[in-house]
Amino acid sequence: xSHITLLHSNDMHxxxxxxxxxxxxxxxxxxxxxxxxSVRNSNPNTLYVIAGDMFRGSIIDSEYLGLSTIDMINLxxxxxxxxxxxxxxxxLAHLLFLEKCADFPIINTDLFVTVNNKRLFSPYxxxxxxxxxxxxxxxxxxxxxxxxxxxxxxxxxVNMKRAAKEIGVICDNYRTTDTDxxxxxxxxxxxxxxxxxxxxxxxxxxxxxIGGHSHTYMEEPTIVNGIPIVQAFTGTDFIGRFxxxxxxxxxxxxxxxxxxxxxxxxxxENDHVMQGLLDQYKxxxxxxxxxxxxxxxxxLTHPRREQETEMGNLYADVMVDDxxxxxxxxxxxxxxxQAMGPIVExxxxxxxxxxxxxxxxVEVTGEQFRRMIQFxxxxxxxxxxxxxxxxxxxxxxxxxxxxxxxxxLTFNGKPIKDDDRFKIGLQNYHYTNFDEFLGVPIEEVKQxxxxxxVATSVNNIIEEYFTTHPGLDAHxxxxxxxxx
Length: 484
Known about the structure:
By secondary structure, this protein is an alpha/beta fold. Helices cover about 30% and strands about 30% of the residues. The chain has 15 helices and 30 strands.
């Protein structure tokens, strides 16, 4: 009998610094690294894997375009890492450079060059521990297509049936008679993991799905088609842990347990080597970015992306202030912190909106705007795995989930009519993916008005407004009203 411990993280997003939670120092890469060392010392048959999105979310990551992240993750000695959608944020060419800097293998099945159908990364890796051969396969979310729209030569599989078929190809070709355990490392979101598990042929032999992307906190695995599905929330505050007993004589998993382990003072001591490396990077970024930009009236929150929030209203209103357009639709997922303030430092400001890009203005009719809202609020919106928006002042949406119907849609207190015209502000990511995110063809919208760039940096606008308007406050006002 072999006892294997399989540890896993996902959606770390450069969350390298600890925070105080209920009086305990929680998370941070030094403490996570300390936990990894402790487990490895107690069980040499320990593996550590990361299911996508190491990058983005902290100034330490973005200042070095992910190189600092690779440097520190190297110290944690992962056995395998699968790609997430944010791994391509700094560009595909840069990602391929970062891969060369990594001391660990990076896998992905479904990202390929469209010209010759050649995969960009190895789709799988076999890892042997205590004589047990484990096959890891990496699957990425379709959102990579959204990030790489300008990369015309790159494609990805975009639905679960295609993904399941590709897993079958890998298993048929590379799952040998020597393979003992098969693990999917996905970055497609919890709901899609469930759908994928339903699509998998039992003869593929998939034993576990370690997921990411939806930042799902789980107290126990979800078992679908006999396959346990797990995630370890986000950041470095938690780590997932499988303890697997494998019968090497009969070549089968005898039993397993899983838990989501809090990485706090009770879990482990800090790894001082990791702390020293982190301090070096933090010292540079602190010197450059640690200055106060503004003071809010109070702490403002953004607890969930799929609802109206205080910070969402603030950011949308900032972007529409003195603007040449009528309505700002600020990407809910572009706001990364759940809370910020009352004192806001430059570093925090940049970490909260790390995806700085240009700002576009388009013009839509009232009928088109209604279609956009209907599409945004479709059933999939409530899983946290579609794009959602924060709307600037004046917009009021009343939507019935049970009827799948917009019951009220007004602007400045007046019902929106089909032949009304509105100029809309959109971040570049959302303009580039207009059809997919908003459900109305951009070519149709271009007939109203030629879209144009109205600002070259969203963060330039935010910083200037924050600096010149101390004491900002915002409240949830019912701009998005969801009934039943």
